[in-house]
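Input for the complex:
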Amino acid sequence: MSVTKETVLEALRAVPGPHERGDIVSQGLVSEIVVAGKDVMFAINVDPAEAAHLEPLRQAAERAVSNVPGIGKVMVALTAEKKANGSGAEAPTAGARPAPPPAGPQAGAGRRQSGGVPGVKHIIAVASGKGGVGKSTTAVNLALGLQSLGLKVAVLDADVYGPSMPRLLGLTGRPEPVAPGSRTLKPLQGFGLKVMSIGFLVEEDTPMIWRGPMVMSALQQMLREVDWGDTDIMVVDMPPGTGDAQLTLAQQTPLAGAVIVSTPQDLALIDARKGLNMFRRVDVPVLGIIENMSYFVCHKCGERHEIFGHGGARMEADRLGVQFLGEIPLDPEMRLRSDSGQPIVVSRPDSLQAAIFRDIAAKVWAAVAGETATPRPAPRIVVE
Ligand code: ADP
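Predicted:
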């Protein structure tokens, strides 16, 4: 049986809405539903004041649709988009006031050096205010985009709570010491990138009960006790969120700058703003914001669906005085490739998505290394 919007709506009618006033469909909370083959995507519009408590509702909706036979992956987002004016304008959420604009357009950002990590010229963080926005996917494709500029690139998977680099780069195995008895490890190599992840050091099903200090010492080891060789730029995939571990990491890693990934919805943007403020607190320049899952182009009809109110991140970047780096469409194929260790920049270098990542990489490199940087073109890596 093929999946239709009706089937999805039917399943969602069993999900009670807030305040026991009927189900989420009859309350008019469900956005346009996009069905791509077996995969389903939609958003639930909620009152911004209640958003913090409605994650269980999102999960219930996801479960209800996932349980329908024949349905593949289900992607559900909460959005605080105001229905009344339909403008997607930002919801007036407490604590969401814009931060003061930075002093000058990222002044000095280009001059920073990564003192501290031998051989590594620049380190940038890829961060998000919350999980699931595509931060790791963006980090890996940004790294590959930087490599396509002719740079020597490393990736440090600092998402100790849920390391994704082994999966995203299809890497298994353990890093070996550079010499017998040495504490220094050789990074693994994936598509030309030097890669280190806590995922290489612990079994996948080991519970990740890392306390703050343990996280830091694990990360410091991965940063400083790995032979990174000669690296132009290292991309650090940060743990999602803005807690103490993230703050300490931002503070203790010699970062040249940070890139914030957000989905377009207001709720995700509020989280993104927290991320941005976190870096500002520790004086790390924010190089820009990337909008991921920005819009969806139907493979069959070619129509562009903006299910999550696309454009929010660009507006937010303008408001906050940081560069908007680009928008990446929601693409089920990208997810399939990504989740099977075939990042889109190398597995489909001619795709729109790959071009977008290369463009973003060029902007990031210009911000980090200064306008005069002219990286040499690298041989293109094509994966058959
Ligand atoms: P995070 O690091 O923010 O938790 P991930 O990078 O692990 O997020 O992505 C979460 C899921 O979303 C993964 O299954 C990934 O393949 C998918 N994903 C990320 N970006 C996109 C996109 N633009 N289109 C479709 N799927 C995406």
